[in-house]
Amino acid sequence: MAKNIGLSEAKRNKNDEFYTQLVDIENELRHYKEHFKDKTVLCNCDDPYESDFFKYFALNFYHLGLKKLITTSYVPSPVAGTQLSFDEILGLHDTGNKQPFRIEINAVPDFDDNGSIDLDDITALLRQDANAVTLLSGDGRYPAGDFRSRECIELLEQADIVVTNPPFSLFREYVAQLVGQAKSFIIIGNKNAITYKEIFPLIQSNKMWAGYRSFSGGMWFAANYEGKYEKIVDGKKLINVPAIWFTNLDHKKRHEELILYKKYSPEEYPTYDNYDAIEVSKVSEIPADYYGVIGAPITFLDKYNPDQFEILGITKTWDDSSGLKTKTYPTQTQVSRGGSRSSVLKLNDGAAIVVNQEPSSTYYLINGAMLVQMYARILIRRKDHS
Known about the structure:
alpha+beta, Rossmann fold, 8-stranded mixed β-sheet, 21 strands
């Protein structure tokens, strides 16, 4: 049932209804300029009513040297107030029904001869070119604008690079489609997507990696619902989401060497009870003189240089690729922070450390031993032993 959810339904889920700020798009995409020349860019899972992806590529069409820009919309914008009036262009302003459509641009003339391309030029282009904006119809199985519909797949087949913020609830399926079509991409996803069994193998095999922007601080998106962290900027509500960029296009940061300075000691870096690896709780504390296997936080990918490190696996139940797991635990007694106890098997889904003193947080009992579980750890090893 879940895998047949329509894109428009997914976008109504509050975890999927947010719009990337232009400043974040500009700050990320400037690191990929050389990849865009003579390329067709597709922004699917998009919404040109409010999309700053569309605005960015339309306004920078010549600066990037694009061959073509294609954008598809899926639902009416829940954060209405756009600068571009597609209702009028499409003749939909009388019905109030913003239907999904596609925009296809091969050039952006300077209509007002002011020496630069701006939103007025883009609006003029869309009004004058009858073929630039076309309504989408869907295919019976998927609604109009859904990236899985036949007409949207045909657009994907034309594209060289896909750039967008897809719905997080469909992230696995979305990435699978991109990989199946062998497309280059720069997309936004939840940071925890790193641990998905459909996503991590792509990262491990260097078919997908983190974008340029740092993992720290999350990202601020325009949204129309309550968030745990929010602020108002220029009258627009922004919410903070633990989101990062994912790509398979090379960028400079990916080849920067991580500077290591700490010395290894068994006291500071305990060995896991169920993995043949040591625990490193912060990427900045990876020891400079240790060449065995390390369990590092998923934020390691923010600093990952494939010339400096190799990724061996991840401490999740479903992953057996590393061969480093040394045991599987029987039923454990989970002791919560409040002292309540229950029988579980949760300790197997992660790396565990034996402790001698009762922790203040949740811990597990097995045959009298006390163990704590780490968050998901990426198992890594240095390549350069010099």
